[in-house]
Amino acid sequence: MMLIAGMIGLGVAVILALVRVALGKTAFDRVLAVNCIGTLIILGIALHGFIMERPEFVDISVLYAILNFIGTFAVLKLFSTGSLGDR
Amino acid sequence: MVFSLETLAGLFFFLGIVSVVIGALGLIRLPDVYSRIHAAGIIDTAGVTFFILGMICLSGWSLVTVKLVLIGVFLFFTSPISGHAIAKVALECGIKPLGRDLTSKSQAAAASTKQKATPKKTTQKKAAKRKTAKKKSAAKGVRS
């Protein structure tokens, strides 16, 4: 029961952050909101594993944490230098 | 009243839900990129910590606990780094923070005209500043 309540809370937060992605004035607002959505999705994957009683989903959650970090930094490097370092 | 690990987990999940929703509301309501980073920090620290503590209370002593602690430590170290990087790149691209400019020249000017200036004027000035900052950033985006 509390796991499902936590899932609903995470869903509400993801929807609110998606509103910021749609409204965001600058690109940095969108990057920040997408980073937040990634963090919430990490928690959601781990919670889903607990709801289904298969905690192996935590491995996928670790992988997604690393991907979220690298993705944010790739976008920011593209903004600041204009390339991804391949010239 | 029976106090078990499950009730403790329920308490942690409740606190996590509250902090995550507060952080997401701040992400919508706050006026600036730099202040929104503050709201994102609430999600990345308080929300993640409470949710992971709740899941640790449910999982007991196992390998899953170690992995959950790994996720918590990783997010604890990387999310402030990414927030700092977002703020740095936004400042490089010419987005000015809201509020009074604290560099020396404008500070003296603001101190001299502090009593005369009405709040309406200052808000107009702020809006004009914001417009120029936006134009600058747009120009930079086109160039790069």
The mean pLDDT of chain B is: 80
Roughly what percent helix of chain A?
Answer: over 70%
Kindly, what is the distance between the CA atoms of the first and last residues of chain A, rounded to a whole number of angstroms? 53 Å
Number of helices of chain B: 5
Total number of helices of chain A = 3
- The number of domains of chain B is 2
Keywords:
heterodimer, A: 87 residues, mainly alpha, Helix Hairpins, 3 helices, 0% strand, flat, B: 144 residues, 5 helices, elongated
What does this structure look like?
The complex is a heterodimer of chains A (87) and B (144). In chain A, 83% of the residues lie in helices and 0% in strands. In chain A, helix 2 (27-51) runs antiparallel to helix 3. Chain A has one domain: Orthogonal Bundle (Helix Hairpins). Chain A is flat, with a radius of gyration of 15 Å. Chain A is mainly α. Chain A has helices at residues 2-23, 27-51, 57-81. Chain A is built from 3 helices and no strands. Chain B has 2 domains: 5-92, no CATH class; 104-143. In chain B, helix 1 runs antiparallel to helix 2 (33-59) and helix 2 packs antiparallel against helix 3 (63-92). Chain B is mostly helical. Helix content of chain B is 81%, strand content 0%. The longest helix of chain B is centred in the middle third of the chain and has 30 residues, at 63-92. The mean pLDDT of chain B is 80. The interface between A and B is large, with 45 and 51 residues.
